[in-house]
Amino acid sequence: MQVGINMGDMAGGQPAMLDIEELLATRLLVQGNSGSGKSHLLRRLLEQSAEWVQQVIIDPEGDFVTLSQKYGHLVVDGERSEGELAGIASRIRKHRVSCVLSLEGLEIDDQMRAAATFLNAMFDAEHEHWYPVLVVVDEAQMFAPAAGGEVAEDARKMSLGAMTNLMCRGRKRGLAGVIATQRLAKLAKNVAAEASNFLMGRTFLDIDMARAADLLGMDRRQAEMFRDLKRGNFVGLGPALSRRPLPIAIGDVETQARSSSPKLMPMPEAVVDVEDLIFTPDAEELTRPVTRRARPAPRPTTDILAELSQATPLTEAPLSSPSGSDAGAAETSSEAAEERARKLSDVLETILSDRESGYRTDSALYQDFLVRSRMARISGSPMSLADFRRRVAIARSGVDEETAAGEAWATALKLADRVSEDLQGVFLMLAKAAIKAEPCPSDARIARAYGTHSARRARRLLGYFEEQGLIIVHADPFGKRIVGMPDLQAETAPGAADAPDEGAENAEAAE
């Protein structure tokens, strides 16, 4: 069914029609500096197409929540756990409900993680729920940055991967990305390159004007026109809009954002006694409780002495072999180190014993680990995030002490350095199965080790490892999967790819 919506007027006064069905297949990129009218354009698109297609808006500033009043969009607060967001996203695809994911008030790292979790859950929806969805992402340069900035690296990778899936592979799953950005130079190229429709608004930097002109197939000398565009005016091109660049003035909208551009207001008339007005408190202020930040209480001397007693003093005396009292001190120090290692292992085991831990980010698990370590009064410097991730990857592989002491496992650890940190747990789990000739893990088991419920993503991981030359996947005469590792000269026993995840079932039964 071909449906055209009116986005506004073209230069000759003719309506600028946008083919929604074509847009679902070819995606849209909007660029314009702050104040150029990007949000107005997105609002016009959403209002005009609300009755024709399901909509999901990733809204970092909470500007689009007003759509719920007139068009019935469900407002989802982004300040939820990753499990809650994933479940909500899956049910939104299943029941075809339009929604606004409001990320207002969250830190940028949390916004990126929430958006990534939501988009990934929509991407991983079951095949029978692949209904067409218009996915609008405002301020897309935040979620798909061209370069790393001050945000956490795991949040950046997670968000960029979700945006890449949306724009590069979402079409077959019914997901049509509409992304808006202030600057093309700040947006990841592999995300921007997948759009076939463009609406370019006012911009001033030479590099952004040149890129906009290139995308529209215009001469570089014509790029200056982007400086002269008025607010709400864009140049459009694409199979859903026009086969040649055309200026478009975006039409009016029926809903308004909660925030608006600042307007000039006349200054109040001059007051004669300004000093009394400002320095004299009102009656209400006298009764209002005054809240001041309390100064931190001084630390007790006993605490300071206790810390000093735990520190290792520096000495200029040469080191000698322990004897007498020195030997006793060394033995005590060795016992303390063993006790600390045991406590750390207990804390790590407690965290990973939760069956939901596989679906939490490493940074969230690390924060939980630090809190539990302090609660257990574990002395010494805390474990670094990199060491923690390595320990988690090894623990999730399920390797036993005998296997971990062998040369083959040492080789597997070196090979794991060739993949990113988020994939090491899956790789080491496969390596352990190959070393011990255990049945090949099922898709469900691999998915849980990676932190997802998607069997398709598990199969993609195996394909990635095979592309890197780390594994060889083949089948036995009965169709069961075998994973071989040439560098280890080992392979798993045959295993059914569609077998259930026994570890998850046992955890549920234990609960």
Description:
Residues 24-301 form the AAA+ ATPase domain. Residues 310-322 have a biased composition (Polar residues). InterPro entries: AAA+_ATPase, ATPase_Atu1862_pred, HerA-like, HerA_central, P-loop_NTPase. By secondary structure, the chain is an alpha/beta fold. The chain folds into two domains: 4-250, Rossmann fold (3-Layer(aba) Sandwich); 397-510, Winged helix-like DNA-binding domain superfamily/Winged helix DNA-binding domain (Arc Repressor Mutant, subunit A). Helices cover 45% and strands 14% of the residues. The chain is built from 22 helices and 14 strands. Strands 2-1-11-10-9-3-8-7-4-6-5 form an eleven-stranded mixed β-sheet. Strand 10 (233-238) and strand 11 form a beta hairpin. Helix 14 (325-352) packs across helix 15 (362-375), helix 16 runs parallel beside helix 19 (421-435) and helix 20 crosses helix 21 (455-467). It starts with a strand and ends with a helix. 36% of the residues are buried. Residues 308-322 and 507-511 have low confidence and may be disordered.
How would you summarize the topology of this molecule?
Blueprint: E1 4-10, E2 15-19, H1 20-26, E3 28-31, H2 38-49, E4 54-59, H3 67-71, E5 74-77, H4 82-95, E6 99-102, H5 108-123, E7 133-137, H6 140-143, H7 153-169, E8 175-181, H8 189-192, E9 197-200, H9 206-215, H10 225-228, E10 233-238, E11 242-250, H11 274-279, H12 283-287, H13 301-310, H14 325-352, H15 362-375, H16 385-397, H17 401-404, H18 407-416, H19 421-435, H20 443-450, H21 455-467, E12 472-475, E13 481-485, E14 490-491, H22 502-510
Parallel strand pairs: 3-8, 3-9, 4-6, 4-7, 5-6, 7-8
Antiparallel strand pairs: 1-2, 1-11, 9-10, 10-11, 12-13, 13-14
Helix pairs in contact: 4-5, 5-7, 14-15, 16-19, 18-19, 19-20, 20-21
